[in-house]
Structures are given as structure tokens and as C-alpha cells.
Design brief:
Layout lengths: L2 H12 L3 H8 L8 H8 L12 H16 L15 H11 L4 H10 L6 H7 L13 H15 L26
Helix pairs in contact: 1-8, 2-4, 4-5, 6-8
Length: 176
């Protein structure tokens, strides 16, 4: 998934306004402007769209954790230069203080079934023999499950909301 898509989904799910987005996206050495936030939130094909890099998303997610859980003792966490879906998944899990059962429940609310052992493989260190890379589909369904739970003014969306199959008698066209 693109970092901008993840940022958009989090903003929508938690109904974050521009000033909160600027606060969460700024670091000690760089303040993010409203224009930068606006450019990150634009669709890929919109004029002025700017791609958000991994470091900028890591700063946002670290501040999101602090906002949801409070500051922890000791030095502030250092934002990673490179992120993958596993790290993003872990940061969101920490921010929302979720246990494995809670994560599985969110995934199931989005119509995605996953076992507890499969889930734990996403949160292992990359060198571990049971480590598994988190694919876009899993992260996308987790974000959808978050929206279903935390965004109460929007009806939940599941895979069962997909269009109905064609009526009987319909002939599928073969590709030539």
C-alpha cells in the first residue's frame, strides 16, 4: 500500500483535522505545513499530489502512538527511514493498544479471516524462522476493520457488500 493511502485512511477513521495532522506529522527538526498535508492527502492523479516517504509516515505513526497512549518514559522513539507493512501494522496495533484477539476481530469485521498463529508471524523479527511478510491485502483489511470500529458515523463495509453474482442464464463472455 502507498503511504498516502494509509495516511488518508487513518485521517478518515479517526476524523483528524488539519491542525492535528500537522501536529502528528511534524518532528523536532521539521514542521509540516497545511499545504504539505493537503498534498499528501490528494489522490494520485490530482494536480499537486506529493508522495509521502517512509520516514514521514514513521514520524506520523510515532506521534499517533503518543497521542493515543501517552508519552513513554525515556527518549522519544527514532523514526525509521524505511517502513514495511509489518512495521506499520505493529505501530497501529500499539497505538490502539490491541491484543491479538482484538486484531483478529477487526480483520473479521472487514470479512477477512486469519488465524492467531498467522497473525503472530507478522509481528516477529524478520530473521525469525516463522516471520511472515504482511501483504497489502491484510493491511488494507485491518484498516477497513479499524474504520468499521472507530468511525461510528459510517456504516461498516465487509466483503459481503460486493455486487451480487450475475443472474441465472447469463453467459460469461470468453476472452479471445
Amino acid at each position: 500500500m502507498k503511504n498516502n493511502d494509509i495516511l488518508r485512511r487513518i485521517r478518515f477513521t479517526f476524523n483528524l483535522d488539519d491542525s492535528m495532522m500537522m501536529k502528528l506529522s511534524s518532528s523536532a527538526d521539521k514542521k509540516v505545513t497545511r499545504a504539505e498535508i493537503s498534498d499528501w492527502l490528494k489522490r494520485d492523479d490530482d494536480l499537486g499530489y506529493t508522495s509521502m516517504n517512509d520516514h514521514e509516515l514513521a514520524i506520523f505513526l510515532n506521534h499517533f502512538i503518543e497521542e493515543k497512549r501517552g508519552k513513554r518514559d525515556g527518549p522519544a522513539p527514532v523514526a525509521e527511514k524505511k517502513l514495511n507493512n509489518n512495521a506499520i501494522f505493529m505501530k497501529l496495533k500499539i497505538a490502539l493498544n490491541l491484543k491479538a484477539e482484538d486484531v483478529l476481530e477487526l480483520l473479521e469485521s472487514a470479512g477477512f479471516k486469519l488465524g492467531k498463529h498467522e497473525l503472530s508471524a507478522f509481528f516477529r523479527k524478520p530473521g525469525h524462522k516463522h516471520y511472515r511478510e504482511c501483504k497489502d491485502q491484510v493491511l488494507r483489511n485491518f484498516l477497513q476493520g479499524m474504520q468499521n470500529k472507530y468511525r461510528q458515523d459510517v456504516p461498516p463495509i465487509t466483503k459481503t457488500d460486493a455486487p451480487a453474482p450475475p443472474k441465472e442464464g447469463y453467459q460469461w463472455k470468453k476472452k479471445s
